[in-house]
Write a structure and sequence with these properties.
Layout: E1 14-19, H1 23-32, E2 41-47, E3 51-55, H2 64-70, E4 87-91, H3 94-108, E5 112-116, H4 121-124, H5 127-132, E6 136-138, H6 143-146, H7 149-158, E7 167-168, H8 171-174, H9 179-188, E8 193-199, H10 202-211, H11 226-235, H12 244-247, H13 250-264, E9 284-285, H14 299-305, H15 310-322, E10 325-334, E11 339-348, H16 352-355, E12 361-368, E13 376-381, H17 385-402
Parallel strand pairs: 1-2, 1-5, 5-6, 6-7, 9-11
Antiparallel strand pairs: 2-3, 3-4, 8-10, 8-12, 10-11, 12-13
Helix pairs in contact: 1-2, 1-17, 10-11
């Protein structure tokens, strides 16, 4: 007897347009064209910073390698002809792409998902038009949901337009971890979320898991130098090319902004959270960039000069160890006090943020009316192209299901 396919014969075929084909984007292409999902999704365009490749949805499906080979690198000129009969090229223009996708979706009566795998604010500014035009948006790009309050409002309002598309953004906060879906399930089923706290940055998690480990107060650890750990993290690709981008805390602040805004648009009897008109820039964010290094533009130079400030971090670690605690860079949303902040905190050695973390894992604790005695904890890899792509593709599957696709358990 033949094994069942992972998918039932789909009732609909979903078109997909992907903007951004870096590490995450390439993984998204690979997953969408895998045998399990190829019957359901048809990639109709790929864009990088300079070029857009358009593909006829009626043409035979291509695998990931063939698709990606058709898109020239952004450093190359726009092709004047196509090596494939179903392919055509145009300059990259997100606004024009949205208009074209919306027009084609109306004409073909096929739902289209716009997947934004960039970190470009300009792309996110097209979300309201895309959603209002009936396209669904799936993205790991945090900027549209964590920048100005006006853009956030436009995105939310667009979802009320007749025939509006859907919005899924799981990967903006936890990569492949079910953080936003967990929050949504809690809120939509009437639970009151009183507090969210967690280690939201894989980079910060790795740095402090290595720098500040549980130790007996009577035998404090001298431990490795902060600058050494940051250097290793950069060499292994755990940080941005400029480590200050991670040490600034802005990535955590953006994730807290998204969580806070989702909390705020759901009914609650608890005190209102800050409105965050400037998004993540409105948060109380503790930077770990030494003031003397704040203006250094080169990541390599920053790493070279960071050892000059090791004594400052050694002192912070020693103070925590005297209390039998460790240092962790965390984000906190406390609804009772109305506080939304991120920075260094000290935790006892037995606390899950101290004892349960390793490597670059993220961990998030939801304190709610239902989970009052012990918080609901979500933990696991919070970074990496493969797990981020998984979060994106899982969201795309949710869109497909809501538009009629039948997917096996």
């Amino acid at each position: 007897m033949a094994l069942l396919s992972p998918l039932l014969a789909p009732a609909v075929s979903i078109c997909v347009s992907i903007i951004g084909v870096g590490l995450v984007g390439k993984q998204v292409v690979a997953q969408l064209t895998s045998p399990a999902l190829a019957p359901l999704f048809r990639i109709v365009s790929l864009s990088n910073s300079r070029h857009t490749l358009a593909l006829s949805p009626a043409a035979p499906a291509l695998d990931a390698r063939a698709l990606l080979a058709l898109l020239p690198p952004s450093s190359a000129p726009l092709p004047t002809s196509s090596p494939h009969p179903a392919a055509s090229y145009a300059p990259a223009d997100p606004a024009a792409l949205v208009r074209s996708l919306a027009h084609t979706a109306r004409e073909s009566n096929k739902h289209t998902i716009l997947i934004d795998c960039t970190s470009d604010l300009a792309v996110t500014e097209q979300y309201p038009a895309a959603i209002a035009a009936g396209l669904s948006v799936v993205t790991p790009n945090k900027k549209g949901f964590s920048s100005s309050g006006e853009l956030w409002k436009q995105i939310v309002d667009a979802q009320s337009a007749p025939g509006a598309g859907l919005v899924y953004l799981e990967a903006t906060v936890g990569a492949g971890l079910p953080i936003l879906s967990t929050l949504r399930d809690l809120l939509k089923t009437g639970d009151e979320v009183t507090k969210i706290e967690g280690v939201f940055s894989g980079t910060m998690s790795y740095i402090f898991n290595e720098f500040s480990k549980p130790a007996a107060p009577s035998a404090p650890s001298s431990g490795p130098k902060f600058s050494e750990i940051v250097k290793i993290a950069k060499e292994n690709g755990y940080t941005e090319p400029h480590p200050a981008d991670d040490l600034s805390g802005s990535d955590v602040a953006r994730k807290l902004t998204i969580l806070s805004r989702i909390l705020s648009i759901n009914p609650s009897t608890l005190p209102a959270l800050p409105s965050l008109p400037e998004g993540y820039a409105s948060l109380s964010t503790e930077t770990l960039i030494p003031a003397a290094l704040a203006s250094i533009a080169s990541g390599d130079e920053f790493v070279q000069k960071l050892p000059e400030h090791d004594a400052e971090f050694d002192q912070l670690r020693a103070e925590a160890e005297k209390e039998g605690k460790v240092l962790r860079y965390v984000g906190v949303i406390d609804r009772q006090s109305g506080v939304v902040k991120c920075g260094l905190e000290k935790y006892p050695a037995a606390h899950p943020f101290a004892s349960a973390l390793s490597g670059s894992d993220n961990i998030v604790a939801f304190h709610t009316a239902r989970y009052a005695q012990r918080p609901l904890i979500v933990q696991g890899a919070g970074a990496g192209a493969d797990v981020t792509a998984m979060g994106v593709v899982a969201d795309a599957i949710k869109v497909a299901e809501r538009y009629g696709a039948k997917v096996h358990l």
